[in-house]
Amino acid sequence: MDQTTTRVANAALRKLDNVSGATVLGCLMKRGYVHTWMEGVRPLASGRHLVGRAVTLRYLPARPDLQQRIARGAEGREFNETPRWDALERLGPGDVLVADAMGRSLTSTGGDVVYSRILTRGAAGLVTDGAVRDGHRVTAYGFPVFAGGSTPTVGEPFILPYSVNEPIQCGGVLVCPGDVLIGDEEGVVVLPAQLADEVADEAIEHEQMEEALLEHVMERRISPKTFYPFNDETRRIYEEWKERRGG
Amino acid sequence: MDQTTTRVANAALRKLDNVSGATVLGCLMKRGYVHTWMEGVRPLASGRHLVGRAVTLRYLPARPDLQQRIARGAEGREFNETPRWDALERLGPGDVLVADAMGRSLTSTGGDVVYSRILTRGAAGLVTDGAVRDGHRVTAYGFPVFAGGSTPTVGEPFILPYSVNEPIQCGGVLVCPGDVLIGDEEGVVVLPAQLADEVADEAIEHEQMEEALLEHVMERRISPKTFYPFNDETRRIYEEWKERRGG
Amino acid sequence: MDQTTTRVANAALRKLDNVSGATVLGCLMKRGYVHTWMEGVRPLASGRHLVGRAVTLRYLPARPDLQQRIARGAEGREFNETPRWDALERLGPGDVLVADAMGRSLTSTGGDVVYSRILTRGAAGLVTDGAVRDGHRVTAYGFPVFAGGSTPTVGEPFILPYSVNEPIQCGGVLVCPGDVLIGDEEGVVVLPAQLADEVADEAIEHEQMEEALLEHVMERRISPKTFYPFNDETRRIYEEWKERRGG
Amino acid sequence: MDQTTTRVANAALRKLDNVSGATVLGCLMKRGYVHTWMEGVRPLASGRHLVGRAVTLRYLPARPDLQQRIARGAEGREFNETPRWDALERLGPGDVLVADAMGRSLTSTGGDVVYSRILTRGAAGLVTDGAVRDGHRVTAYGFPVFAGGSTPTVGEPFILPYSVNEPIQCGGVLVCPGDVLIGDEEGVVVLPAQLADEVADEAIEHEQMEEALLEHVMERRISPKTFYPFNDETRRIYEEWKERRGG
Amino acid sequence: MDQTTTRVANAALRKLDNVSGATVLGCLMKRGYVHTWMEGVRPLASGRHLVGRAVTLRYLPARPDLQQRIARGAEGREFNETPRWDALERLGPGDVLVADAMGRSLTSTGGDVVYSRILTRGAAGLVTDGAVRDGHRVTAYGFPVFAGGSTPTVGEPFILPYSVNEPIQCGGVLVCPGDVLIGDEEGVVVLPAQLADEVADEAIEHEQMEEALLEHVMERRISPKTFYPFNDETRRIYEEWKERRGG
Amino acid sequence: MDQTTTRVANAALRKLDNVSGATVLGCLMKRGYVHTWMEGVRPLASGRHLVGRAVTLRYLPARPDLQQRIARGAEGREFNETPRWDALERLGPGDVLVADAMGRSLTSTGGDVVYSRILTRGAAGLVTDGAVRDGHRVTAYGFPVFAGGSTPTVGEPFILPYSVNEPIQCGGVLVCPGDVLIGDEEGVVVLPAQLADEVADEAIEHEQMEEALLEHVMERRISPKTFYPFNDETRRIYEEWKERRGG
Q: What is the mean pLDDT of residues C3-19?
């Protein structure tokens, strides 16, 4: 699958910094993208907003012969899982590592030593439907972490990293390399790269619209019953709100 | 089912303000009411105590023909889900919206715009075994929210509100309109309306009893081994405690 | 099973006070102990580190005839569940009550009155794969509590305590009386008594090693890619780190 | 919800006698009816095809006061659950009892004595997302039974029948009174009453089409790769097949 | 727990040979024994009725030190799991092996070589909430097998047999040594030893009663609506039925 | 991963025709291959033994842009899922299609028209952790089918085929192209290609050994207690058995 044509610009990412994943998801639903929210993937630390381009990593169930093939390290270093390191080294500012652990929320994909590389590469964060080892130490680095869980166990007997930057599933959702991930308290929404720019603009306007409507109902203590779908009344409220704010 | 005969007075609700759901549940067990705790329904924000009379809302699985029938809105406003608005408009101080979402903890029953109406009606809170959309925005309103989860997804393709103020299930428990809901860190207990007054009194005394017994064992660093079931010894400890407090 | 030969000294427990369960688990994996982490057992309050010797308590499904046999209390006190009290009275400083509730994470094993005894005995904490009744009141005592959940319900109709200080399962893991339990944000790891001393030493060194390596990569903003398995390079980094710290 | 306008004729039911639930579901998908298959509802005896109009029965969680209200029997006959009997007495040839047991696949909705009434009313069968008590005795009556499971337990302590012939959920799917249920090895598909006639015709043609295509590929040992979506080639094959059969 | 006082006679077992587990469960409910049906334990081969006295075997999670302790075999035979053999050697005609595998329905408790001993001891059957290895070979022996599942995997890395003839849980239900197990298509019901005789008699009469009532409604094509709870009418029908049969 | 070096000969497959998956799994455990049994993948029709080389097919979650990319069919034929057809066309005698549906046991991977191609290619069978549409029609073809389930639903809105003959997971187990799949009543075991020959020989001998031991214990009505691990005694019994058979 050719994913190289679209690279979402940092400017587009910044537009999404204050947008809720729920709003992005609403914009995607309208375009027929109905499965964009990862099930079972939750923030390990609350209050952090994630926006980043996906660098994808795919895990497979472990097997002795697979382990030998993917090691490719120096002599005797059989746990040096090169695909994982390949993925980490590709990360830069605005990028997020997205690891398909086949939904095994109790199985570690890495811990604080390995994931220190996300910090030192200046990347945006980490998303996996597997677990993070010693998650409370990884969240201490400060970047947003979304995972199936946190665990003290080691992953190698169960799963192994296999390939980098191909389309994967994560949390039951398709993630293509370069797709934008939006993470907040409600988890992670995947925004396909080619839609990032237009959805970002639409999402910002939608959030302003709802801010305007909420101010309106709160001031008057009235019901928002007639607001959906948006209509002449809501557009009028929104225009007045923009005027007041602009004034 | 005729539920109109009993309306729990606000005074009875206030008596329950400092009572644990666990204590109410214990009182109900003694009366043969064994299933009164909602499974899978948790506080979205901790540290908030809910006491309120149920206004019930029942969801059903979505279907195109059902959607047309329940819209009943103006021309073309097909998402105007009237039963949900009917329920919200019935709320007043001391009331809580209880929504049977058939236990679908990942499916939204509404978000911050819709549930602003709970705030502007001055109602006590929200309980559902479904999800709340963008829950962290709804909890920002300050009222207690108990739900199966928080999600960025929209509910309309999956569930639709169907009827108001009939008996429902929520979290596997029967809720009749007017029943009292007690919510705390451990979730939600349903207190049938006709028992509210007598259970409130009994629960307050039970909590005092346990407070007395706990003070007693803590001071003396002894075991509460002989306290259950309550007996002459525990009554003596309780009487002394009341005397000390009263004196 | 003869467990009386090894009693882990308090000094050994203290060595584990700053060690992560993940590190202990890693040491145990190397020795062929592969199932040592309790699934589904989580801290009810975060930020508390548990280290303690297990006093075990085994629950069984409730049945009227079983209830009569285990009551052994005075006349009419049929809820006086003696095995539970036997277990609580055996607790002392450095001990932790570990209750096998057959993985029933919604079923209460006890509440704030019963578990006040853990506090007044000066014990280290509580671990169960069942629930704690009114968990937010039990965590208020300050000792670490790890459980399958918190509930307002009562356990007697469903489970009954049956025996004390025999090998049990808890969270799917074997716990022998006297085994050491390590609890932190990621849950509970079981360290067999006879290995406690040697694993404690190894774990401390391993944590220092990783601290040294992490400082190294953070300062230089480099990848820890070549660190596993430990090798000449990592040993050199570690030795330099110890020297600097010692100097 | 007004369901009385459409009553599916027996002739329309007979058209569906040889049609697979999968084919009906495909026809419904094209019309935007995407959730029509009951999850977790399976045939208790294989090889029986169900086609019938729904008479719906809704269960609620049991509670002592609910039990008193729905008994409405003679003095002391408190287990005479009238709504269940109301539903059974409405059954006639071509009708099927559909019981919403809130997805409790282990909880009995009735056993061989109660469900003998389906046989003596000459009805088409039984569908529930709850369990059937002593299912192997009920299947011995010969009519098709689709359920969440079979159990020796009794349902009264857990669920109670509450209302008849209102819209319900069953297996996560909406069922309106009068809707047509198609049951086979793969479980139950719900066909809305107002679509029954047109879908029946379309389904029969679709099945003939696929029969023609399968004969074609089997004879020639070729791939059906170019058959979907249907096109000029497939129509030609179908027309030839009809001619041969007609000839 | 002293279970040696009651040994259910073979004559009492024979009385239960034609009784449904559902009927036994109903008799136990009336006596306050509410949890007697094993969840998740199903017949591996259908059409076989099990009645037998429990010889209990308790498994625990595997651990290297536990394995050494329970081996007790000759030199080097570390997989000779003595508690399992102890249990098997205690079996005689009318006995059933009941293995508590902690509900791990995918984990083997033994296969065709080990369980050949049930056949050669002339025992009544096998019940476990774990799995049977190569179940289709074990069912070929002809005795009834009830299990959580059938698997090709080996159990030793996960569970180990630990003790014999103590009270256990199996399928979430208490089983004391000597209790009677009734197994049929709906799974397994546990009948406490001390109640076996009286429940057997009551169950036989109950089944005759229902046979009489069913014949009555089938002949007349009428509703059994007024039959529960049993009353003057049902007793009259029953008496007539007995007379006819006796005559 | 280079899988082209080993192609398991048909002669090796034939050696496995009478071998149980359990026996193969035992041989693999000894070689450190511990995860080789697919969880949740069951025979849709019983009594059929599968042995075949894997042609792998990987599904991903559906998304509109992915659907466009993988269609690659003629104009307007957007459901022509080429990777699935690519996989089917690679099948020959002795091959089995293994489809990674990400464990979605309710989601269709294909139905009777598509899977007719397995029959007309003369392939050995079908394995998937997804569902088969109208499974009872697919099993009518006669080849062995192992799947997560059978369903009337269509898969396209949820999953799409993406790539062929790369390593996949299926039922939680690694499957590399060319690996041998053994399927029987207990499900599917994966035998890595490079081990197929040696494991086949060992498995046949192991099954003969157990046949000999079982005959021995059955004739003498004795316990197999001392048989594991195999030893001088078992070897003697086996040699005698071979002699008798050979003579």
A: 87
The type of residue at F201 is D
User: Scanning every residue of chain D, which has its alpha carbon at the shortest distance from the alpha carbon of E229?
Assistant: D77
pLDDT digits (tens, 9 = 90+) for D24-36: 999 999 999 999 9
Chain A residue at shortest CA distance from C212: A113
Exposed (0-12), middle (13-18) or buried (19+): which is E34, by Cβ within 10 Å?
middle
pLDDT in tens, D134-155: 999 999 999 999 999 999 999 9
- pLDDT (tens digit, 9 = 90+) per residue, A2-55? 445 679 999 999 999 999 999 999 999 999 999 999 999 999 999 999 999 999
Per DSSP, the three-state class of B141 is helix
If one counts every other C-beta atom within 10 angstroms of the C-beta of residue F25, the result is: 26
Q: For tokens 């993937």, what's the residue? A: A41
User: How far is residue A25 from each of residues A31, A192, B134, D7, D31, measured CA to CA in Å?
Assistant: 10, 11, 11, 40, 24
**Cα E199 from Cα B64, distance rounded (Å):** 53
Model-level pTM?
0.96
Average pLDDT in the C138-151 region?
Answer: 98
For A218, the token pair is 């709160």
d(CA C129, CA D162): 36
The CA-CA-CA angle for residues B150, B152, B154, to 5°, reads: 105
Contacts of F48 (CB under 8 A, 6+ apart): F125, F143, F144, F183
pLDDT in tens, B199-234: 999 999 999 999 999 999 999 999 999 898 889 999
Provide the angle, in degrees to the nearest 10, between the axes of the packed helices A196-220 and B112-120.
10
Q: Counting Cβ atoms within 10 Å, is residue D119 exposed (0-12), middle (13-18) or buried (19+)?
A: middle
What is the identity of the amino acid at C180?
A: V
Positions of chain B with pLDDT lower than 50, given as ranges: 1-3, 77
Q: How confident is the model at residue E70 (pLDDT cuts 50, 70, 90)?
A: confident
| Pair of tokens at residue C149 | 């959940």
Q: Is the peptide bond before D93 cis (omega within 30 degrees of 0)?
A: no
In b/e form, how buried is each residue of B1-34, taking b as 16+ CB within 10 angstroms?
eebeebebeeebbebbeebbbbbbbbbbbeeebb
E136/F226 touch (CB, cutoff 8 Å), yes or no: no
Q: Which backbone phi and psi does B241 adopt, to 5 degrees?
A: -65, -45
**Chains B and D: how many Cβ contacts under 8 Å?**
70
Can you give the three-state secondary structure of A63-117, one letter per residue? CHHHHHHHHCCCCCCCCCCHHHHHHHHHCCCCEEEEEECCCCCCCECCCHHHHHH
Domains with residue ranges and CATH for chain F: 10-193 (3.50.30.40), 199-246 (no CATH)
Length of chain F: 247
User: How high is the pLDDT of residue C6?
Assistant: 79
Q: Which CA distances in Å does D104 have to A159, D40, D108? A: 35, 10, 9
Any alpha helices (H) in F9-90, and if so which ranges? 10-15, 21-30, 64-71, 82-90
Tell me the one-letter amino acid at E10.
N
Q: D106: exposed, middle or buried (C-beta count within 10 Å: 0-12, 13-18, 19+)?
A: middle
Backbone dihedral angles phi then psi of residue C75, each to the nearest 5 degrees: -55, 130
Given a cut of 60, whether residue E77 has pLDDT beyond it is no
Q: Contact D134/E226, CB-based, under 8 Å?
A: no
For residues F195 and F31, is the Cβ–Cβ distance under 8 A? yes
Of D22, D218, D224, the CB nearest to F133: D22
Q: A214–B116: do the CB atoms touch at under 8 Å?
A: yes
- CB within 8 A of E105, min separation 6: which ones? E40, E129, E130, E131, E147, E148, E149
What is the phi/psi pair of residue C95, to 5°?
Answer: -100, 155
What's the gap in Å between the CA of C106 and the closest CA on chain E? 14
Question: What is the structure's pLDDT at A112?
Answer: 96
Shortest Cα–Cα distance, C93 to chain B (Å): 14
- Residue B241: partners with Cβ closer than 8 Å, 6 or more residues away: B208, B211, B212, B215, B216
